[in-house]
Task: inverse folding
């Protein structure tokens, strides 16, 4: 029984336990990871009006971070490239392939996405709805989380641009407090977008308090409490080679 007490045996046993734990964790977390990425990808697909497309996050029957896109055979090359880039930008997604063999790299040269398109999409979302916060707080109201999801999906195709997030308040309360609250709320939206896969280095925040009310509204009107987005053109991000599949 001396071998059971030897350092070499203890090290080998520890290594085996680590491997077994990794295998179990992969089997446990893999399907959940694939399900999460699949659900997120379908949200992106729906937001871009490409419902016939499906993203399959399995490879050989096992969960994979590298989706196979299918169902977009009738889409033009520009739309296919825009969709592939948007899915590639989801946090955790690896290489992307199209079922018909076309790749993002081949399509990307013909696709030009102007940042103004993304801003128009976001403004359309916020025209009838507002990102709301708990009273006198920078905590985003639970009812607004779905709207933040939609804003993130609308901004994702324009990654590589600078996205400015500006917080506004009404004029109730002292202005120093309004400035601080508007900045805190803009920062809360920034953190929420980062959590939804928007890169932090492209997001800029500021709070302007009550000094820029909505045209036609009194400064005290609660409708002045709002978040605005500005998408500013800059150097595009060099995409990762999403057409090259990696390990599943």
Result:
């Amino acid at each position: 029984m001396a071998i059971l007490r030897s350092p070499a045996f203890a090290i080998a046993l520890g290594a085996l336990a680590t491997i077994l734990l990794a295998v179990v964790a992969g089997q446990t977390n893999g399907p959940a990871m694939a399900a999460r990425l699949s659900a997120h990808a379908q949200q992106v697909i729906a937001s871009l009006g490409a419902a016939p497309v499906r993203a399959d996050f399995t490879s050989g029957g096992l969960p994979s971070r590298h989706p196979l896109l299918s169902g977009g055979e009738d889409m033009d090359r520009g739309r296919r490239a825009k969709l592939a880039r948007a899915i590639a930008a989801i946090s955790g997604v690896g290489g992307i392939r199209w079922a018909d063999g076309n790749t993002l790299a081949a399509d990307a040269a013909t696709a030009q996405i102007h940042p103004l398109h993304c801003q128009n999409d976001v403004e359309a979302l916020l025209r009838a709805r507002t990102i709301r916060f708990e009273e006198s707080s920078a905590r985003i109201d639970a009812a607004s989380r779905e709207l933040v999801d939609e804003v993130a999906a609308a901004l994702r195709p324009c990654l590589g641009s600078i996205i400015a997030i500006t917080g506004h308040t009404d004029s109730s309360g002292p202005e120093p407090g309004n400035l601080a609250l508007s900045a805190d709320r803009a920062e809360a939206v920034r953190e929420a977008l980062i959590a939804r896969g928007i890169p932090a280095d492209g997001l800029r925040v500021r709070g302007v308090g009550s000094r820029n009310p909505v045209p036609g509204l009194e400064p005290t009107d609660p409708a002045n409490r709002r978040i605005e987005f500005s998408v500013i053109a800059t150097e595009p991000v060099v995409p990762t080679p999403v057409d090259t599949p990696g390990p599943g």
About this structure: Strands lie at 54-59, 62-70, 97-98, 162-168, 203-207, 226-232. The radius of gyration is 23 Å.
